[in-house]
Design brief:
The protein is mainly alpha-helical. It contains 17 helices and 3 strands.
Length: about 525
């Protein structure tokens, strides 16, 4: 509206100027030249009146087109983060808004979305109603709720060495400002808070909405439940809120003690399972509750038994969900992302075996989960080397029927054969996103010294993922297409494909650019 008024004023001034010019020329020119000058000026006035509406319309079109295009194409830098979080937690509390977050709103987010118990205080230094949440407090909340272990490898900022902030910096969650500061006292917007939680979520394990539906990443007791589940001590379909047993009160050694009836065998099975897992460290896991409560839930039990198991082990290396996936490994983020999306569960012994190879049947299972394929029935495809009642039969026949994978020889699928890197590229390329071959330039493969080893059928897939920055090759300039892909490498690869570019990262640098220009 402002631009329209300005254009209208400019048009009015233009018309007035034309009239003044006409008046000046006709009144001030020599008498003999007045008729000719007057006729010329009158012609100018006629042209101005004729084309002025057209010029005005064209100017308005130029003024409004950029705004319309921007409104249609521009997406907020934190929109992906907010959408992802709301998809995981379901409450819709996260948003891509530039308004500041109050401490009260942050408390509501923690208690409602992440399921923390009433009265839990996640924020230090609460000053009262309406207090704005600071960047330091936001970092501390993410650090604590998602159970991040301290990682100080990136070093402190110039204005804070808080372990939570430095850990988030080391993990790539926060970037700070170009002058090396973090500005811990600055308020944090809803968009920034969503991005902090979104990036932190990728550092922890989870099951999304597939398994343990009531236990979300970051929720109260979540890590303990997953600690048991990844070790096959707790079924993934368990309800954390389910009562573990009905209690009755007895007296022993002059103390009132709760004895659990009905499901005590569940507790004993958990203890026995954890006691037999590697490393074979001698320990006894027992549980005694002295508080008189009517019932104990699965979550209550998980919190206690995991605490005792870890204390008995006295080994920080087993505090993670997978004992062989340390937080500083290059494949940690990828494996945790797949776990968070319900694609992997480990080997049932609290390990993931990231350096082991991947079988063709396991790859078929991943493709099915990635694409949410209904495999309740086998597809119309003949497979001669897998028996009908084998766990992978329905999976394999469906991925063959969909064209995601093919036979190795005749109608044999070779389910136990190890998957090569180029085979993984090809299968994911065909299944995820339905990419078009003609959109890929094969010239990007020229940079690799072993490009001749890439099978013709896999070239488009390899070229696409190289172009997209998903696959980079090694330091020697080789793509190693015929090398066997490990479970850890596949975790990194699939996470990059599924996660796509993190558009929220752009915001870190947009602020820095403005600072430089100013």
């Amino acid at each position: 509206m402002v631009k329209y008024r300005q254009i209208k004023r400019d048009a009015s001034r233009f018309t007035t100027t034309c009239h003044k010019a006409a008046s000046t020329l006709t009144n001030g020119a020599p008498i003999g030249q007045i008729p000719q000058g007057k006729e010329r000026i009158m012609k100018i006035n006629r042209l101005a009146k004729k084309y002025l509406p057209l010029l005005l319309s064209f100017s308005l079109l130029l003024a409004f087109l950029p705004m319309t295009a921007a409104a249609a194409d521009q997406r907020h830098w934190a929109a992906d983060a907010a959408d992802t979080l709301n998809g995981v937690y379901g409450d819709g509390i996260f948003s891509a808004s530039e308004s500041f977050v109050t401490v009260d709103a942050a408390r509501e987010l923690v208690t409602r979305t992440l399921g923390y118990p009433p009265g839990y205080e996640p924020i230090d230094g609460y000053l009262g109603h309406g207090t704005l949440l600071t960047r330091l407090q936001a970092a501390q909340i993410a650090y604590e709720l998602y159970g991040l272990g301290a990682n100080l490898s990136a070093g402190p900022f110039t204005d804070t060495d808080n372990p939570a902030v430095v850990t988030l910096r080391s993990l790539g969650v926060v970037a700070g400002h170009i002058d090396g500061s973090f500005r811990p006292s600055d308020p944090v917007s809803k968009a920034e808070l969503a991005v902090i939680f979104y990036r932190t979520l990728s550092k922890v394990g989870g099951t999304g909405n597939m398994l343990l539906e009531h236990a979300k990443p970051g929720a109260f007791g979540y890590n303990e439940l997953m600690y048991l589940a990844t070790r096959s001590a707790l079924q993934y379909d368990a309800d954390p809120g389910e009562a573990l047993a009905t209690a009755s009160i007895g007296v022993s050694n002059d103390e009132e003690r709760i004895y659990y009836q009905g499901k005590k065998e569940i507790w004993n099975a958990w203890s026995a399972r954890l006691g037999n897992l590697p490393p074979q460290t001698p320990r006894t896991v027992t549980w005694t509750v002295y508080d008189q409560v009517p019932a104990v839930t699965v979550l209550d039990a998980a919190l206690q038994i995991v605490a005792e198991d870890r204390a008995a082990l006295d080994n920080d290396g087993l505090d993670g969900l997978f004992s062989d996936v340390p937080a500083d490994s290059y494949f940690y983020d990828g494996i945790m992302y797949l776990l968070n999306n319900g694609l992997v569960v480990g080997n049932g012994r609290g390990q993931f075996a990231p350096n082991a190879g991947l079988s063709r049947s396991e790859l078929a299972a991943l493709l099915v989960r990635m694409n949410k394929i209904d495999v309740s029935k086998p597809a119309d495809a003949t497979v001669t080397d897998i028996v009908y009642d084998h766990w992978s039969y329905n999976l394999v026949t469906n991925v063959i029927a969909l064209g995601y994978m093919d036979y190795t020889d005749g109608h044999n699928f070779s389910p136990l054969a190890q998957v090569t890197r180029q085979e993984a590229f090809q299968a994911v390329y065909k299944s995820y996103g339905k990419y078009a071959d003609e959109a890929v330039s094969l010239s990007v493969l020229d940079r690799f010294t072993d490009k001749a080893d890439i099978k013709e059928s896999c070239r488009a897939a390899a070229a696409y993922f190289v172009s997209a920055g998903v696959v980079r090759g090694n330091a020697e300039g080789n793509l190693d297409p015929e090398g066997l892909i490990t479970r850890g490498q596949l975790g990194v690869f699939l996470a990059r494909v599924m996660n796509g570019p993190d558009t929220s990262k752009m915001h870190d640098y947009s602020k820095d650019v403005r600072e430089v220009l100013e």
